[in-house]
Amino acid sequence: MTIKAPFELEKISSDEYILNMGPQHPSTHGVLRIILKLDGETVRDIYPDIGYIHSSVEKICENRKYEMITPFTDRLDYLSAVNYNLAYVMAVEKLLGVQVPERAEYMRVMLAELNRIMSHLMWFAAYGMDMGALTPIIYAFREREEIIDIMEGMTGGRMIHHALRIGGFKYDLQKDFMERLKKFLSHIDDRVDEYEALLINNIIFTARTKGMGILPKDMAINYGVTGPSLRGSDCAYDLRRNAPYSIYPKFDFKVCTGRNGDTWDRSKVRMDEIRESARILRQAMDGIPSGDIMAKVPRIIKPAPGEYYSKVECARGEFGAYIVSDGTEKPYRIKFRSPSFSNLSVIREITIGTKIADVIAIMGSLDLVIPEIDR
Amino acid sequence: MTHTELLEKLQAKHRITESKEDLGVLNAAVGAGAFKSVIKTLKEELGYTQLNFVTAIDWPANNNIEVIYRLYNYDTNSDAVIRVKLDRTKPEIATISDIFSTANWHERETAEMFGITFLGHPDPNRLILPDGVIAPLRKDYKDAAMIPLPKA
Amino acid sequence: MDLLKDILYNTDKPWNQFYGWAHAGWANWGWPPFILDIIFQLCFAVIIAVVLILNALWIIYYDRKIAALFQIRKGPNRVGPLGLFQTIADTVKLLIKEDINPKAVDLAVFFLAPVFIFIPTFMVMLVIPFGRGLIPADLNIGILYVMAITGLSVIGILMAGWGSNSKYSLIGGLRSAVQLVSYEIPMMLVILTIVMMSGTLSMGGIVQAQAGYKWFWLPQIVGFILFLIAGNAEVNRAPFDLPEAESELVAGFNTEYSAMKFAFFYLAEYVNLFITSAIAATLFLGGWEGPLLPPVVWFFIKTYFVVTLLMWIRWTFPRLRVDHLMEFSWKYLIPIALLNMVVTAFVIKLV
Lengths: 375, 152, 351
Prior knowledge:
The structure holds three protein chains of three kinds.
Chain A: E1 17-21, E2 33-39, E3 42-49, H1 57-62, H2 66-76, H3 81-96, H4 102-130, H5 136-155, E4 164-165, E5 168-169, H6 177-200, H7 203-209, H8 217-222, H9 228-231, H10 239-242, H11 263-287, E6 306-314, E7 317-325, E8 331-337, H12 339-345, H13 347-351, H14 356-365, H15 370-374
Antiparallel strand pairs in A: 1-2, 2-3, 4-5, 6-7, 7-8
Chain B: H1 3-11, E1 16-22, E2 25-30, H2 35-44, E3 50-59, E4 64-73, E5 78-87, E6 92-94, H3 103-114, E7 117-119
Parallel strand pairs in B: 2-5, 6-7
Antiparallel strand pairs in B: 1-2, 3-4, 4-5
Chain C: H1 2-9, H2 12-29, H3 33-70, H4 86-96, H5 107-124, H6 142-163, H7 167-198, H8 203-209, H9 221-234, H10 246-249, H11 259-284, H12 295-314, H13 322-350
Helix pairs in contact in C: 3-11, 4-11, 5-6, 5-11, 6-7, 7-8, 7-9, 7-13, 9-11, 9-13, 11-12
């Protein structure tokens, strides 16, 4: 691929050189290529090049029936499959005018929150690696493994859980789901404290992240940054609170925010969110009613012509599924608005003038998942 | 702010060709000449500070391509959708990346997926697709790799 | 029995006897005595090489087990009893792997770099006092020699960085040079303080000066901590592993290396770790001195205590950034080390 602006060769002075970071690089978390113009170790310019694993999901979806599309959505982001399913499923349900039973809504919220914890733990693990600490990854995977086991029992999948159906669930919670969840929730808060002591409050970590990659609130909004990366910039915007979906209004939770919008704040917000997700899970465990898990959905899904955009707060930010129906059993057009796509686009603003190591730190703090950027 | 109030405020300044309320969201179609000032008004005066996404829909039957801008207001938690119809044979539209920085990437994606030219775009390179793949999200796109779904 | 006891506890006595006896016998043959000395030195070299390699193999296994302990996992436990042969298996694997030379490398420099890294580690062993009289050569400038030789290994890393003709390697090599220059100074200042206290540059002499359990770590606790920090930085291990910084520079200076050439870097890292710990044990923990057990055992116990400390640090901390690294050395370590030296000088003068 030819890269023209802003890396024209004549614009590179004799002090500068170009470093091609990726597409195969330990810290780009997948196949992301970042072209850096460096002066020594100082970043003079940065140009992300995405699209290495573009899988053309939007085009594929145009040729699939509505119920066949759900598995595609959880493959977009291997870390928050349930949230992605949820956005799509809710859009179709809205188009169909289906009311999902309350128990199914509770189950959805529980799975979504478990998924969020899992994703944030994965972020913590990978971020430790990015920062050169090799131990956090194992610690975080200990908890993540528990969640994966719970999810595996529930959905059959360890990473790309495909549990949600249009209208609710096919299968109810497995028998020991509550027990295992309770066991998990009993120690997650302590473990998060431990992780904060190990990495987030570590003196080297704070020295490297505080005041680094400051993302001002207005710039974040201008670039469409969402999720923990936006909340780190002191913007209490959480779709679960601001544009409630499913049964989130029933739960009491705090929207965690940072103050300065630096890399450390973004990290801290994620750790706090694990605690809040655990709180939601506890409330959901207490409040889950018994009853149906599947709404009455027509056998052949043929929504009336129209369009609907449904958005959820996934672990990385706002994920939206925009569906245009033309009245047939296949969607006319589907657009997935993925959070990391917008989150990554801001990187040029916040990394210029930093060091190579900071590029990794800042990129990691945005919590990128490459398949959802490329879609 | 309700949908009608918003529409009135917009209509006071701009010509909205057609509009409807779609599940509580203002959905307004605007001419290609006026849309930029509409979006500017929405951002600067009405508080729609976030651009959720830019995309397009190909309508070969009507021989046009609709470019869709979805905006969001943090204060009122409301969305607004601006649609601009373009000629399918030569789709050209002004960029809004000077208003919303995030539009830069979204427009680049839309441009290569639908073959739309965003006039005045600061970085009109390809973003996702490799060279040589032209407008795959158009309905009439054909590729040797595309195999029709087998009949069940 | 007495002989065995002497060999274990008081090695120089039987050695001197044997040396005298051998030379007497040699004189009967009528050949010049320096040839016998050369033969002895060659034997020493072979013994050191064997000890070095075996120790490196063991220390790699030990590091992995310690890492496993900190990371709540089991570590190597498949090859051999308790996974003891894991490193041997790894070494054999690296030996029989294809040796890939990328097209663009500067072959001579690329080939020589692992050699230049490994040889200094080998040479430093010459002056390490493993036990009473168990020192290959007690040079009267021992500690100076150590500093001079360990400083050489950076040339190897720079060569690897330059010869690989890869930007990641080059950055890694340059980082290493910068790091070594900055951390050599506080280390030197600390060693100078120790030399002031012991009044000798010889490694054996420094151990002698601490005889009677007057180990230097207590009066020189600041120096000991500074030495551990600087020493950790010298061996390029986390949190000072900037030259290889895998999340930033892929693998830093050894990005392009494979097979046995890579194994040399890998072994050298661990041998360097051992040497730094051994020097720390010699300078601060009284070397081989200790009750009951033979001196050589005490030496290894103390060395491995320091090794474990450094591993603990490695598996806990995230990596420093390159400018923080510089700041840390020039703004904190060097002033503290200087102050420490001045205070020590006053105390020595007064007492």
